[in-house]
Amino acid sequence: MNLAKPICFFIVAAASIGVIPQVVAQAPAPKSTTTGGAPPPALPPTKSDPMITSALTAGPGTCIEPEPVFGIEDYNGPFQKLVVHVAGKPDIKTVHAPHSKPGSVLCSLHGGEKFKLFVQDTFEPVTFGIAAFNAGLAQAYNDDPGFGQGAEGYGRRYGAAFADEVSGEFFGTFLYPTLFHEDPRYYRMGHGNVAKRFGHAVEHAFVTHRDSGRQSFNFSEWMGTASSSALGNLYHSGNHRGFQPAARGVAYGVLTDVGWDMLREFWPEICRKGHLPFKIRDQH
């Protein structure tokens, strides 16, 4: 299986909207030694902006920074690195809505930060495990029969399964959220009854937050899933072509993302029920 085409596509797409140069350019610039002149214009605050420190204690209408995800320091049990990677995966793209500061919005992510989020969520050890599991299922059901069986067939299926993970994250976390100015993160409700929180998780497939803090239709979810499915036809030789197979693929992808959002919504309770020794952060 040749993955050169999808890999080149990801690189060219990222470079075409100026994100790779933007990530490189984020290194601290040397201070100017000149005096006088007008100060440079202020940029809108983002997650990495120093203005966040003051925004955390400011009143309504300000930009606030979400709590960080689980870290190694939050866990004191056995198999520390393994457990932190597994338990931290759902929280990489999860933020807590600012319930205690009415009128406040979470700081938006610029294109470079969305690209970093895509890389962080994609190249987690859990992602490699998911690809291995999906490749095993494909091997058992003999999907893509052209790949054959045995170790060689499994290796090809693993490469295709991992490419699926990469393309889904690339389109849904970086490319379309950058083009449509949408926030690719899930806003955890974290309070209320189970039915309300369940509906909130399902709603995210249709409604998302824009970089401005307003809500709109989740174009990134549907266009990202459709693009990933279309790209998969380049290296999944056994895929059926046509509208109905494509529609089923998009529906399956969206339902999978809904499942992840449900996991993200109830993940703190799952950690408690599982008696995982994690520090439970204040979500309100």
What does this structure look like?
- With 284 residues, the chain is mainly alpha-helical.
- It has a domain at 75-97 and 110-273.
- Helix content is 51%, strand content 6%.
- It is built from ten helices and six strands, in the order H-H-H-E-H-E-E-H-H-H-E-H-E-E-H-H.
- It has helices spanning 4-16, 19-24, 52-55, 80-88, 111-122, 125-140, 150-179, 194-203, 219-232, 243-273; strands at 63-64, 94-96, 105-106, 186-188, 207-209, 215-217.
- The strands form three sheets. A two-stranded parallel sheet has the order 1-3. It has a two-stranded parallel ribbon with strand order 2-4.
- Helix 1 packs parallel to helix 7 (150-179).
- Mean pLDDT is 78; it is low at 27-37 and 42-60.
Compact summary:
With 284 residues, the protein is mainly α. It has helices at 4-16, 19-24, 52-55, 80-88, 111-122, 125-140, 150-179, 194-203, 219-232, 243-273; strands at 63-64, 94-96, 105-106, 186-188, 207-209, 215-217. Strands 1-3 form a two-stranded parallel sheet. Strands 2-4 form a two-stranded parallel ribbon.
